[in-house]
Design goal:
324 residues; seven-stranded parallel sheet; 38% helix
């Protein structure tokens, strides 16, 4: 029986997941196009085209689980996700591996209630439809008994890197004592998810057959406004709270004309223009999982950002991805 855990993607979630599995004594193969990934004696890093299921089968003819932590360019989801998703479904069917997908909340579309897993996937935007269809396809095959599948959904990430609204462009400005400009309303409540908690939940659901065939929301802390997040990050960093403003819609619209990423982000602008609250009580109750404490998250995010020593002048709003 295979003991391999196949992780696809070495972004903030994929790397954290591979590390968690390896530290638990699991045999991990992490696959990316470039062959990057964390260093650990239990982790094997492989470069490959993950859209080619035959190549995945050559790398790992069998596996306990395949974890989809891939992160294609945000504005190319419609082109790049379908072939990848198809490859992972085929792999899961041929090997019997549990397919565990790292996803987000786009599939729900605009809502006026706290988002629970029971909400219908009725997004009308391109990216929302792509993510919704990925789960619907996996659920159909699961319900038919052809694969074992589950999905983990988190809100916007709070972390130090480019996969966060506050990571690569906001925190450097806070640390430099510069003013901060964000997308959307500064003072509405928004759920923030810690990537490590996403990885923790993915590991849990892969090993729990009662989790299969369902989607699960990642346990996250109490919602915070963008102003609160920035203020608390500044406090943790022991610097003065910066001046905070919102990018005017007219500027966002102009940027969207020339920048495909900013154009794609307009589809989900509603996420930062109204309360965006995640109901993640099901995972808490079912698995007894609690989120990493907010104070610990702040400490780790600030410490991680300081340790990277990245030049904040190389970051700009047009590069900012969205995780929710």
């Amino acid at each position: 029986m295979s003991r391999i855990h196949l992780v696809v993607g070495a972004g903030v979630v994929g790397s954290a997941l591979a590390q968690l599995l390896a530290e638990d004594g699991k045999e991990v193969v992490i696959v990316t196009r470039s062959g990057v990934g964390p260093n650990h004696k239990n982790i094997k890093r492989v470069a490959s085209d993950v859209c080619d299921c035959e190549k995945l089968l050559e790398i790992a003819p069998s596996a306990v689980a395949i974890y989809n932590c891939a992160n294609p360019p945000y504005h190319r989801w419609a082109q790049e996700w379908p072939p990848m998703a198809s490859s992972f479904l085929t792999y899961a069917e041929k090997t019997g591996a549990v397919l565990v997908t790292c996803s987000n909340l786009y599939g729900y579309g605009p809502v006026d209630v706290a988002m629970s897993e029971s909400l219908p996937l009725i997004a009308s935007g391109v990216n929302g439809k792509v993510r919704a269809q990925m789960w619907l396809d996996a659920k159909t095959l699961h319900d038919a008994g052809r694969i074992k599948a589950t999905e983990v959904r988190g809100s916007d990430y709070i972390c130090a890197g480019e996969q966060s609204r506050v990571g690569s462009r906001v925190i450097p400005k806070i640390l430099a004592g510069k003013s901060v400009q964000v997308l959307g309303d500064i003072d509405i409540k928004h759920t923030w998810t810690y990537p490590l908690d996403v990885a923790r939940l993915m590991k849990i659901v892969a090993e729990n057959s009662n989790a299969w065939g369902k989607a699960w929301h990642v346990p996250s802390n109490e919602p915070k406004t963008q102003r609160e997040v920035i203020t608390e990050l500044a406090t943790e960093a022991r610097v003065k709270t910066p001046k905070i403003s919102s990018v005017p819609n007219v500027i966002w619209n102009v940027l969207a004309i020339f920048n495909p990423l900013m154009r794609a982000l307009k589809e989900t602008a509603y996420q930062m223009e109204r309360s965006y609250i995640l109901d993640e009580s099901a995972a808490r109750k079912t698995f007894g999982m609690q989120p990493t404490s907010w104070s610990q998250i702040l400490k780790e995010v600030v410490a991680d950002r300081k340790s990277t020593r990245l030049n904040s002048s190389h970051t700009d709003i047009s590069r900012m991805p969205s995780s929710a």
